[in-house]
Design brief:
This protein has 274 residues and is an alpha/beta fold. It has helices at 2-24, 30-36, 40-51, 102-116, 178-186, 197-208, 210-246, 251-258, 262-273; strands at residues 58-68, 74-83, 88-94, 129-135, 146-149, 164-170. The protein is 49% helix and 17% strand.
């Protein structure tokens, strides 16, 4: 009975902590942003402002989209959307400068190319793609609200035309332009302070509506559980590597002790040898 009471108290404490955290979340917090922009109308609105287009129509959008590189490693993207012209958009929130580095942008772009192409498909059929970083700080440190990166031919200065685009949006600029108002809304914790109704309504739903709050609390609980699983898996990997280096146990024995699959242990051994 005492154990059950302890569990109930722990659940109540975590729930209250979640509610407190929810009140302080902004669209600049990736876990909250992902839920808000799972709504394709909101994502469409976001992209129309960033790309300065009114004809863009989003067909589908996925939050926390897992895609794999050629080695099978899974990487989670914040938002992945596709429009009516089959253009692909990866939207990332980055509060840390390190997380929005130029190599990260290049990597995300390559992952999109690798995952939207079917085996045997012609390279000419690659979709036009956009990797968009919305950053808390001015990554480029030039004081501009937005930066567009496209490959160019150095000798001529002309665009290379590979239809691979990278965009950095600087959330520090909160002027009266459409983009400035958008970045203002990304920094708000209260829907009543937001300028765009379409975003304010969505934020209000997750912060004030009973069903929306419950959805966010479940999402935060799932994130806690996933973090715990990732921590345990990292520990298991470390243990398995140590046993592989000792050379005293078989793959099967290591897999059983570390609670990994035999294939995972074999893959780790290949990395150790390399």
């Amino acid at each position: 009975m005492a154990e059950n009471n302890t569990k109930e108290l722990d659940f109540d404490r975590k729930h209250e902590e979640d509610l407190q955290r929810l009140r302080g979340l902004r669209l600049l917090d990736d876990d909250f942003m992902q839920k808000v922009f799972e709504d394709k109308v909101c994502t469409e609105f976001l992209l129309q402002i960033i790309l300065n287009r009114t004809d863009l129509k989003v067909l589908r959008v996925n939050g926390q989209q897992d895609i794999k590189n050629l080695q099978g490693r899974s990487v989670r993207l914040d938002i992945l959307a596709v429009d009516a012209d089959n253009r692909v958009y990866n939207i990332e929130i980055q509060r840390s400068d390190k997380g929005a580095g130029v190599k990260r942008a290049r990597y995300n772009s390559s992952l999109i190319d690798a995952n939207v192409t079917e085996p045997g498909e012609k390279y000419e059929n690659l979709c036009e793609s956009y990797v968009i970083f919305i950053t808390e700080n001015d990554i480029m440190k030039v004081g501009l609200p937005i930066y567009h990166i496209d490959r160019t031919v150095k000798e001529t200065g002309e665009l290379f035309g590979d239809e691979s685009h990278i965009i950095y949006v600087n959330s520090q600029i909160k002027d009266e332009s459409a983009l400035g108002k958008l970045m203002h809304d990304f920094s708000c914790t209260d829907a009543k302070d937001m300028k765009y109704k379409i975003l304010a309504d969505r934020v209000r739903y997750f912060k004030e509506d009973e069903k929306g709050v419950a959805t966010m609390c479940r999402a935060m609980e799932e994130m806690r559980n996933e973090t715990a699983r990732e921590t345990e898996h990292a520990k298991a990997i470390k243990v398995a590597k140590g046993m592989l280096q000792s050379g005293k146990l078989s793959y099967e024995e290591i897999a059983e002790i570390a609670e990994l699959s035999i294939d995972e242990v074999k893959a780790l051994d290949e990395k150790v040898i390399a």
